[in-house]
Hints:
The longest helix is centred in the first third of the chain and has 13 residues, at 2-14. The protein has a 14-stranded antiparallel barrel with strand order 1-3-4-5-6-7-8-11-12-16-17-19-20-21. Helices cover 6% and strands 56% of the residues. Strand 16 (363-375) and strand 17 (378-387) form a beta hairpin. The protein is elongated. It is mostly beta strands. The chain has a single domain, classed as Porin (Beta Barrel). The termini are far apart.
Amino acid sequence: MKRFVLLTGCFCTLFAPLYGQDNHYESLQLGSKNALLSGAALSHWVDPTAVVHNAATMMDAKEAGIAFNSTTGGFDNIRFDNGLGEGVDIKTSDFQLYPGLIAADLPLFKQANKYRLGIAIFARVSDRTRFTNRSTRIQNIINDVEMPGSETYIGQYTLDIDVRETTAAMGWATRLSEHWSAGVTAMTLIRNQRYRENFNANAIADPTLSPTVDVVSSESDISMKLNYILLQMKGSLAWKKGPWNLGIVLTAPAMKMYSGGDMIAQIELTNIRPVDSLNRRSYFASAYLEKLKPKFKYPVSLSVGVSRSFDDLVLSAGGTFYGNIDRYVVVDPGNTSFLQPPTEDNIIFTQRFLEVWASNRPLVNTSISAEWMLNPRTSLMGGLRTDLHYAEFIEPVPLGFQLPKKIWNRYHFNAGASLNGARSRWIFGVQYSHGQADDYRQPYSFDGASESNLLQGERSKGSIRANGVTGIVSFLFYVNRPTE
């Protein structure tokens, strides 16, 4: 039993916090016009994507329409200076082609003035992040009795995250009175998450100095995939009087319909001498968890938007409150043996290493926007919105793994133009995003590596910056608008 208590302390220093998903609610906005207007669809009808933002505003649509939208491509750059130690940066530059969407709102039979139906299929999350770097240096890590002089230290780190979420929505709206309308939307979310993190470090002796130990090494490798099907409901109200529009949307917490996945994890310590031990030996931990039933939660949210029309200008503002989610277990490893060989004693430590958990803090995202009509066929649009991270970054970091990775706030700035034809409309625009955290914690450190810390240095904090530029294009076809 003493051996496993000792190993628990060792392995906890080797396993970094696990991060793995896009950590923002509003990174991808549905619909090009709504994206350029930073969420103005909360308060008034913008295009057929209203079924997702505020179904009640569909009652203000003057004709049936089908929208084809695509954020055609985006370039993202994330940089963490000295993220793995002095002179060892963590950085990634990635160009992605984002999936498009289709949305439509249609009158129900001949009751267009009383009822409307909307449908949409779109990408709610599309996030890929990959960090990798390697450091080679000469330093004295192992005692000179066993490894005389300095050793060659080689450290490597890789993090690869891929999160995709596709949503299908169907909504219905009805007119309650001259000024009020109501709507309801049901959304089915299909979420797929892939994660891999690897760290390995080696202290290699100089063979010319007759060492008694040739190599000391440590490695941790964890990989998992998690799949979900979730159901989420929205209820909405829209009020319109003169130049003013008001929208209110209540979104219920997501309900799990299906989940599955697997995880494989491994730790190897070779010729290591843990603290308070006089002997060197090698240790091994490995587990494969299959047929998992992971959990994932979206919180309750309440959105309010308001807009006012002037002669050639529409100004909009909105905000969304997201409730908190207390710490919950995403993946429970159960009684799987991790430390090898398996015994009755080491099962109790598995949960401390392999349990995956999450916790969401409450937050409010806000937005403002303007649309200026140059003429009946052309308008200019612009806006900005906040996109705050929702993870609770707990210090000190508890045992087990936390899901989110991008623990920094983001801010989106949008600009574009709308070109209207007889029965169609084109929208072109661009979005610039910026995020930064000045107290971001290193996942690992190569500085001052020591054997007592399993060939790692003490992790510190630094500044991480993220910038992105995304192109936005959409085409809207009006089904029943008469040609001019």
